[in-house]
Amino acid sequence: ISLIKKEIETFISSYNKSLQQKDKNIKISDIKIQKNTLSLNINSQGIFRPHNALLQLKNSISKEFGKKHKLGVREIKINNYDIQFDLEKKPLKNVTIPFADVKFKEKQATISLNNIDEEFLQKNYIDRMINLVNEKVENQYYEGKGEFWKLIWESGEKKPIWTKDPTEEMTKLDWLKQGPTKGKWFFRPQATAILKTMEKIAVEEVLKPLRFQEIIESNLVPFDIWLKTGHLEGMPGEFYYISEPATRDVEKWERFVDLIKITKEVPLEELEKNISTPAAGICYAQCPVIYWSFKGKTISEKSLPVLVYDNTAVSGRYESGGRHGIERVDEFHR
C-alpha cells in the first residue's frame, strides 16, 4: 500500500473530517504507512467510540480502494486501547475482569486492553466489560448486607402439632440414611411414603384444581440454556457439572480399568485423560429447560399463563455451607 500512500492519507484525512462533523471530540492522528501496514491512533472524548470508528474505517477503505486497486483490509490489530468512563459511586476496592487491567481514580475507571483483534470488537466484548466494571463497583455497596424483604400478608398464628426435628426422628427409626455423598439422603419405604403423600396432596389439592398439567423434562441442562437464562453467570459455583466420556474406545480406558483392578481405588488422574470438558450440568431449577421447550414457538395471550409442572427431575445444588437434615440439601426430589 506504500505505492498509494498519498491517496490513502488523503482518504483518511477526509474520513476524519466526516467523523468530526458527527462528533467534534473524535480525532484520527499519527497516520503511518510502512509496506502493507497502516498504523494510526484514534482518540475520542465524545459519544463516538474509537473501536466503532475503526470498524467503519475498515469498511470504508475496502469500499473505496477495492475496485480501484484491488485493495482491502486483511486484519485489524490493536496494540493498546484505553477506555475511561465515569462511575456513579467511588469504588471501595479494586476489581479485576478478564482481558484487561482496571484502574480507578475517584469515580473514574480506566480499562486498558492490549493486543486485541477485530473479532474482539465485533463481538461487543467492550460494552460488556464496561457494564461488568459498573456492576462490580455497584455490588461492593451491597456485599454483606442483610436480605431485604417486605411483608405483604400473613395468616394468623398456628400452633404446631409436632415440634421435633423430622430428620433426627426418622434417622433414629432407620427411615433415613445419610449419603452416599454429602447433602444427599437415602429414603427408606416409610420416609418415602410420607413424601409421596405430601406430593399427592400438592398435586391433587393445589396443582390440578389450578389446571396445571404434568410434563417430563431432562435432568441435564446444556450450557447454552443457562447462558440465555443468566444462571451460568449468576451462580456458577452452585452447579454440579457433567463430563461426558471423551471416547468409548476400550483401549483408551484399558489402563484406567487395570489400575482399578490392581489398586481397588479410582485413578483420578487417569480418569481426567478420558473425559471431556463439561458442557452441561445437573438440573438446578426446573424453569430453564421449560423455557427452552418453547424456543421458536409463538404463544397467544389467551393461552397465558402456561400452567405446567415437572415431577421427575432431581435438582442438584452445591451448598457449600448451611446443610441441615432433609430440609437443606444438595439434592432436591420432587
UniProtKB/TrEMBL annotation:
Residues 4-139 form the Serine-tRNA ligase type 2 tRNA-binding domain. InterPro entries: aa-tRNA-synth_II/BPL/LPL, SerS_tRNA-bd. SUPFAM superfamilies: Class II aaRS and biotin synthetases. This is Serine-tRNA ligase type 2 tRNA-binding domain-containing protein. The lineage of its organism: unclassified sequences, metagenomes, ecological metagenomes.
